[in-house]
Design a protein that fits this description.
Chain lengths: 240, 347
C-alpha cells in the first residue's frame, strides 16, 4: 500500500475534525475524496502530507512517516487554492522546484509541460488566471516524478472547462507514470470521470471507501450512491 | 533554497542599496566641507575646548547631525518591520508555506536559509550605514567631546539593534501569522527593549568611577531634575555637571562627610528663603537673589560636598561591544524560539 491510515483522528480544541479514519490506498490508484464543506477532507490530506500532526492513530506514507515521505520528494502536494509566489515568474517557480527537489526533478518534463499548457515563462504567478496557477502548482508537484500525488480541491475555483482540463491532465500524467493520486472534491461528477476509487467523508468520519468499478456501472449511479451516503450521514447527524 | 531566499529578498535588497547610495551621496558631498570647517574652528581655538568658534561650528551643523543620527536610529525599526515581520507572516498569509513545505526541504533548513540571507543583509546594510554616519559626524563628535551622547547612533551597536529587530519581526510573524500585527509588535518590542537597556541595564554594566569635589557657590543652582517619561524629582540644589571630556555622567549627589544625602529639611533650615522671589527659567535672577543663592551654597558647602559617578570616555568601546553582544544574545534566543515554534507548527 502506498498510503495507510489507522484509526486516524484530529481534534482542534474541542472539535473533532476527523475520527476513526482507516484507509488503504494501493499503488496506481486514483482516489477521489468527496464530502461537503467541513467534512474533514482537507484535514485528512494535511495529515497525509505532514502539515498537521494527528491527535490519535497513525498514518504511513510510502511505508514511513509523512515528514520522511515529503523529504524524500516522492510525494507531490497541491494545497487548496494552489498557492504560488505572486512575485515570482513561471520560470522562477520551475527553478524553485529544481532547487528544492534536485535529486528527483525532471527539468525536461517540467519545461515541456509548461510549454504545452501555454504558461508564459516570464509571466509572474500573480498575473496568471486561476486555472493557469493551478496548472503551475501541478507542474511543480508532477515534475518531482512523485509516487503519490495529493491534491486538495485543486479545481474548486476553476470554471468547468479549466476544471476538466486540469483533471484530464492529472489523470493522464498519473496513468503514464503509475503515480497514485488522492484528490479531494465536493463535485461528485468529477469522481466518475477521474477516479478509480471513491472515499466519502462526512462529519469527520469515513462513510464509504470502495473501488468505483465494483460499486456502480455509470456516473449517474455513482452520484446516487454518494448522495445516498451523504444523506444518511446528515440524517444520523441531525438525530444525534 | 539559497536561490529562493535570494530571489525573494531581491526587492528588499535593492531598496536598501538605493537608501545606502542616497546616504552615501550626501555624506561624500558634505563631509569635505565639514572637515574643513572643523579644521578652521580647531585652528582658531587651539587647545581651548570651549571657544566660540568650536561652539558655532557645532551649532551650525546640529540639524544635519540630528537627521543623520535619526536615520541610524530608525533603520533597525524599518528592518524589523519591513524585512523581519513579513518574512514568515507573508508566507502564511499567501499560503505559500504549504507550497514550499511540500518540497524536499525541512522547515528548519528553510528557516535557517531565510534567516542567514536576510540576517547577513541586515548586518551589512546597518554596518555600512553606521560607518558612513560615524565617519561623516567624526569632526562634530570630536568637537562635542560627548561620545556617549550619540552612543546608539554610531559604530557597532546599531548592528545589534537591527539584528534584534529583524529576529523579533520574524518571531512575531511566526506567532501572529499576520504581517501588520507583526510589524506593530516589532516596533513596540524594539522601542521597549531599547528603553529598558538604555535606562536600566546599560548603567549597571560597569561600575562607575566616583569623584568627590566641593560645592561651587558660583555655579550651583536650585531646581528639579528628571524628565516627563521617568518623572521629575523634588527641587533641591543642582550642582553644575563637572566638565569631564567624553564622560557619561551618571549621577551628581550632594552628601555630607558620612555619606548622608542633603535633605530638604537641612536645606530649608540652612537657606529659609531658597526658591522665593523672581527669577528662574523665564529670565536671569536679580543680583540679590544670586547673592542669597551663593551664600546658601557656601553655607551648605561647609558640611556637604558633591559626589559624581561617571563612565570615562575610554570605556566607550567596552560599552559598544557589550551592548552588541547583549543584543546578539537576545537575537540568538529569538531565533531559537522561532525554530522551536516552527518545528511545533502544524496547520
Amino acid at each position: 500500500m502506498i498510503l495507510e491510515t489507522e484509526q486516524l483522528a484530529k481534534r482542534y480544541r474541542r472539535r473533532w475534525a476527523l475520527r476513526d479514519c482507516t484507509l488503504a490506498v494501493p499503488e496506481g490508484a486514483i482516489v477521489g475524496l468527496v464530502g461537503p464543506n467541513g467534512a474533514g477532507k482537507t484535514t485528512l490530506l494535511q495529515l497525509i502530507v505532514g502539515l498537521l500532526s494527528p491527535t490519535a492513530g497513525a498514518v504511513r506514507v510510502l511505508g514511513g512517516t509523512p515528514d520522511a515521505a515529503m523529504r524524500s520528494g516522492r510525494v507531490g502536494f497541491v494545497a487548496q487554492d494552489a498557492p504560488t509566489y505572486a512575485g515570482l515568474t513561471v520560470a522562477d517557480h520551475l527553478s524553485l522546484g529544481a532547487g528544492l527537489n534536485s535529486h528527483r526533478w525532471d527539468a525536461a518534463a517540467a519545461k515541456e509541460r509548461v510549454e504545452r499548457l501555454g504558461l508564459p515563462p516570464r509571466q509572474k504567478a500573480g498575473r496568471l488566471s486561476g486555472g493557469q496557477r493551478a496548472q503551475l502548482a501541478l507542474t511543480l508537484a508532477l515534475s518531482k516524478s512523485p509516487d503519490l500525488l495529493v491534491l486538495d480541491e485543486p479545481v474548486a475555483s476553476l470554471d468547468p472547462l479549466a476544471r476538466r482540463a486540469f483533471l484530464d491532465e492529472t489523470v493522464a500524467a498519473a496513468t503514464a507514470t503509475g503515480t497514485a493520486v488522492v484528490l479531494s472534491t465536493h463535485l461528485v461528477a468529477d469522481l466518475a470521470h477521474t477516479c478509480t476509487h471513491v472515499v466519502v467523508v462526512a462529519g469527520g468520519r469515513i462513510r464509504l471507501a470502495a473501488a468505483i468499478a465494483g460499486l456502480c456501472a455509470t456516473p449517474a449511479e455513482l452520484e446516487r450512491v454518494v448522495l445516498d451516503e451523504l444523506g444518511r450521514a446528515t440524517d444520523e447527524g441531525s438525530s444525534q | 533554497m539559497i536561490w529562493l531566499a535570494l530571489r525573494q529578498f531581491r526587492t528588499s535588497a535593492w531598496t536598501a542599496v538605493v537608501g545606502l547610495v542616497a546616504v552615501a551621496s550626501v555624506v561624500v558631498a558634505t563631509r569635505p566641507h565639514l572637515a574643513d570647517a572643523a579644521a578652521a574652528a580647531q585652528h582658531a581655538c587651539g587647545s581651548d575646548a570651549h571657544c566660540p568658534a568650536l561652539t558655532a561650528f557645532a551649532l551650525d551643523n546640529t540639524a544635519a547631525r540630528t537627521v543623520f543620527g535619526l536615520v541610524v536610529t530608525v533603520a533597525p525599526a524599518l528592518i524589523g518591520a519591513f524585512w523581519g515581520a513579513p518574512m514568515i507572516a507573508g508566507e502564511f498569509e499567501a499560503g505559500t508555506h504549504r507550497l514550499v513545505w511540500a518540497q524536499s526541504i525541512s522547515r528548519s533548513r528553510w528557516l535557517a536559509v531565510k534567516l542567514v540571507v536576510a540576517g547577513t543583509a541586515t548586518v551589512v546594510a546597518t554596518a555600512l550605514l553606521s560607518a558612513l554616519v560615524t565617519w561623516w559626524a567624526a569632526p562634530l563628535d570630536h568637537a562635542a567631546a560627548a561620545v556617549y551622547g550619540t552612543f546608539d547612533q554610531r559604530d557597532i551597536v546599531p548592528i545589534g539593534y537591527a539584528l534584534f529587530a529583524f529576529a523579533f519581526g520574524v518571531t512575531a510573524g511566526l506567532v501572529t501569522r499576520r504581517t501588520l500585527p507583526a510589524m506593530a509588535l516589532t516596533l513596540a518590542g524594539l522601542l521597549t527593549v531599547r528603553i529598558l537597556v538604555t535606562e536600566w541595564i546599560r548603567p549597571l554594566v560597569f561600575a562607575p568611577r566616583v569623584v568627590s569635589m566641593p560645592l561651587d557657590p558660583d555655579t550651583t543652582g536650585y531646581g528639579s531634575g528628571g524628565n516627563i517619561l521617568f518623572g521629575v524629582g523634588p527641587s533641591t540644589l543642582q550642582p553644575t555637571t563637572p566638565d569631564i571630556p567624553n564622560a557619561w555622567i551618571q549621577s551628581v549627589r550632594i552628601v555630607d562627610a558620612a555619606g548622608e544625602p542633603l535633605t530638604d529639611q537641612v536645606l530649608r533650615a540652612t537657606c529659609p528663603t531658597l526658591g522665593q522671589g523672581p527669577g528662574g527659567p523665564a529670565g536671569p535672577a536679580p543680583e540679590a537673589v544670586r547673592q542669597r543663592m551663593h551664600d546658601c551654597v557656601a553655607r551648605i558647602g561647609e558640611d556637604y560636598h558633591q559626589v559624581v559617578t561617571y563612565q570615562p570616555g575610554d570605556r566607550y568601546w567596552m560599552f559598544q561591544w557589550w551592548e552588541l553582544a547583549l543584543f546578539g544574545f537576545v537575537t540568538a534566543l529569538l531565533c531559537g524560539y522561532a525554530y522551536y515554534r516552527l518545528r511545533r507548527f502544524r496547520g
